[in-house]
Structure formats: structure tokens, C-alpha cells
């Protein structure tokens, strides 16, 4: 069996870790060379982009692209993990919270912001994952990091009737830079309104150009496993440039090219084969990652 080289866009179900999904795709693809372009928490669902074979080398670049989410924030309850999987640490009355207040507070999170990641995250602190330090009983204080929220839409503000304690649920849709923690926005919205908050639902709707329309469930993949060819994946994710035969040979030897590019660009042989990613540097295009010998 030939090792597949391409992307698999999975609609991850709740309850599975990203590693669980990778393990299943390894079995379906018949190779251990499978990775993912950014994790999803077990509670979260939606787009998880995996790469197989040579396409695993694309994943590091895809991790830097923007992402889109649908989420529900519950105001009035704070948890240790800033989501529904953690223990409740505080509650507060939400009787006085209005929709206008929620919308005004959320508007402060749009644009270039400084965000303190949730303590229960995979960020390493002195070589150890932050979430592991929290589990070990340590107090973890992470530094604020610059992130960008390109768009944040309030879909609905509602009061769940099924809960004994009055709370306010806020449904949002957002587009943001890689590294943005939606859980932290839930936490910070609650703090801004003085009632606390956490995330009760999260669905990733896109990673770069790959949306739910391209995603398949694990059951669908089990019935008919196929990958998005690496050529198609590269053209979808990056600006593309079609080379001539002489330029193709230069790429195969890892040489710089006299191309006028402004962003990381996928370059292709006259045959259509995907060859490499090139970046602009010093007035020329230089190889960032070459995928052929």
C-alpha cells in the first residue's frame, strides 16, 4: 500500500482528544506518519486538520493561519479550566446583566489584543505543560500574549430556563489568529461584567481555507478513507506560483528564485506537482520547505 500524502479534514466529535483522532487516522491510513495542525480540547467539536505522509510538513505552516469558531459562554459561573469540564470555583448573580452590556463588553475583545492564556493549556512553563502544573497543585500565572480577533459576532444572548441558578448564555461566532483561546475570552468577558464566565460549547468551523464543508466524520472516513492530495491542499492554503522547467530544477536543488512574492507561496512544477513553499527574503524567493528531492 502506497503511503498517502495529503490532508484529512475531520469533523471531530466531542469526547475525543486530538491524539485519539490521530490514532484512528493512523490505522485507517496504514501509516504512523500522521499529525495535526492544532489541537482541539476533548469537549470541542469541529474542524481538525490532519496531514499524512509528506503533507505532515505542511502542518506547521497551517498552524499559523486564522481559525473560526462557534461558541457558547455562560456568565455567572467560573470554573478552574474556564470551560464546562472544570470544577466550579465561583458563582454570581446575573440578574442585572443586559444584552447591551454583553455586546459592549465583547466589543473590547475585537482587534489586536493582549490575552492571558487559560492556565489549563498546553503552553510550556520551564519545560512542563501548564495544565500539568495546575494538576500538580501549582499556581500558574501565564504572561499575556498578542493575538488578533478579526471578527466577533454575538448571535444570541439568552437565559437558560433549565438551570436552578440564574445565568446568562451568550452564543458567539468569531474569526481569530492562531493561538487565541476562546476559553480565555469567556473568562475575561465574565470578569469584565463582574460575574465570572466559562465556555460551555465550542465548535471550530474553519482552519484557514478548510471549513466544515470539507470535513468528514470518523465514521465516513472508516467507510471510505481518502486524503485531499497535497497539491490541492497547498493550492487552497497558500498563494501559488507555477514554475517553468528551469525553475523547477532550481527548486529541487533548494536554490533561491527571482520571484516577486509577498507571502509564503506554494510553487508547482509544469506537471502540476507541488514542489515547495517559498518565502520572500532580500528581494528574492527563498525555500521555506522543499517537499521533493
From TrEMBL:
Belongs to the pseudouridine synthase TruB family. Type 1 subfamily. Residues 183-226 form the tRNA pseudouridylate synthase B C-terminal domain. Residues 238-291 form the tRNA pseudouridine synthase II TruB subfamily 2 C-terminal domain. GO terms for biological process: mRNA pseudouridine synthesis; tRNA pseudouridine synthesis. The lineage of its organism: Bacteria, Bacillati, Actinomycetota, Actinomycetes, Propionibacteriales. The active site is at residue 41. It catalyses: uridine(55) in tRNA = pseudouridine(55) in tRNA. Responsible for synthesis of pseudouridine from uracil-55 in the psi GC loop of transfer RNAs. It comes from the Bacteria. Residues 26-182 form the Pseudouridine synthase II N-terminal domain. NCBIfam families: TruB. It is an enzyme of class 5 (isomerase). This is tRNA pseudouridine synthase B. Keywords: Isomerase, tRNA processing. Its EC number is 5.4.99.25. SUPFAM superfamilies: Pseudouridine synthase, PUA domain-like. It comes from Nocardioides humilatus. GO terms for molecular function: RNA binding; tRNA pseudouridine(55) synthase activity.
